[in-house]
Amino acid sequence: MHMDDSISDGQPEPPADTPEPGAAGERRPRGRTTLIIAAAALLGIAGGVAVGYGVQAGRAPTPLTALSQPDLAYPAKALPAGKAPDPLPASQDRRVRADGDLRKLVAPRPKGWEEDKLLTTLGWDGWLGLEGYALEFEDEDYMYGDLLDQGIRRVAGAAWKKGEHRTATVRLVQFRSGAAAADHAEDQRSYMPQTDHGAGNGGTALKGSANGRYYVYPADRKPGYMPVHRARAIFQRGDVMVDIHVYDTAPISKKDIRTLAERQLERL
Question: What is the pLDDT of residue 25?
Fold first, then answer.
C-alpha cells in the first residue's frame, strides 16, 4: 500500500508497509531469527522519598527568578516595524530537508563498508514499506495499526556489511509530528534495560541528541552456532525517529555503534 501522497510536498511517498509498547512493540530480535540462521549457514551449520519531603518542608521558600532579565529578547535588537526575520536557508531548515527525499538524509555509507546487496534485493531501494517495517517487531499486526494511529508517514533506510560477518541497518522513520516520532523512540528505549528482548542495560547518552541512547548487548551464544553480538542506537530529531542496528560474530564496541549514530545525527 502507499501512504497519503498529499503530505509529501511534491515528493513521491514510498510504499507504506507497522508495532505494541512493551511486549508487542518490542523489535523482533534478529539474533533469534535471521542473523543466527545466516551465521549458521556461514559456519556450514548454519523510604528515602519521605525523608526528602521532610527536609524540603522545613526549608524557607526560595524566591523565584525575576521574569524580566536582560539579554533574553530575540532578536537582540528590535526589527523595524513591518520587518520580519529572514527565513533560514534550506541547508539549516530541518523541516524543509525532511520534507524532501528522505532517503537523501540517510548518512553516507562509512568507509570500509559496502552495500548489503542481499538485504537490498529482498527489500526496498532505500524505501521500506510499512508492512516490512512492522515485520521487524514481535507483534507485527499490533505495530501496523499502532504506527498508523501515530501518523507514520514513511520509512527510509540502508543496509550495509563490512568484512565477512558484520552488518548494519539504518531506519529513518518519519511521522506527521515530532511528538509522534519522540513517542516511538521512547517506546523502543523503554524495554532496552530488559534482558529478554532488550540489551539488559540503560545504554549511553548520545552526545548532541536530547533523547538519544546507544546500547551494546551481551553476546548471544547457542551450541552449534557462532556467537551473535549486537548493538543498537535510538534517537529522534524533529519528526524523524532513527533506529540503527549492528550485528556481528565478533564483539561490537561502544565506539562502533556511537560512530554510526553520530554520523546519522549530524546528517539530520
Answer: 76
Enclosing H/E stretch for 137: none
Is the CB of residue 266 less than 8 Å from the CB of residue 245? no
Q: What does the block give as the cell for 186?
A: 521512547
| Residues 6+ away with beta carbon under 8 Å from 261 | 206, 212, 214, 233, 235, 242, 244
Nearest to 141, CA basis, from 129, 131, 150? 131
Neighbours of 82 (CB within 10 A): 5
Q: Give the 3-state secondary structure of residue 37.
A: helix
Q: In whole angstroms, how large is the CA radius of gyration of the chain?
A: 22
C-alpha cell at 224: 552449534
Secondary structure E strands in 185-259: 204-205, 213-216, 229-237, 240-248
Judge contact between 73 and 120, C-beta under 8 A: no
197-230 residue pLDDT tens: 899 999 999 999 999 999 999 999 999 999 999 9
Stated pTM of the model: 0.69
**H helices within 32-125, ranges in order?**
34-43, 48-57, 94-98, 117-121
Measured CA to CA, the distance from residue 8 to residue 160 in angstroms comes to 27
In the predicted model, what is the mean pLDDT of the chain? 78
CA 231 from centre of chain: 13
One-letter amino acid at 265 equals L
Q: How confident is the model at residue 125 (pLDDT cuts 50, 70, 90)?
A: confident
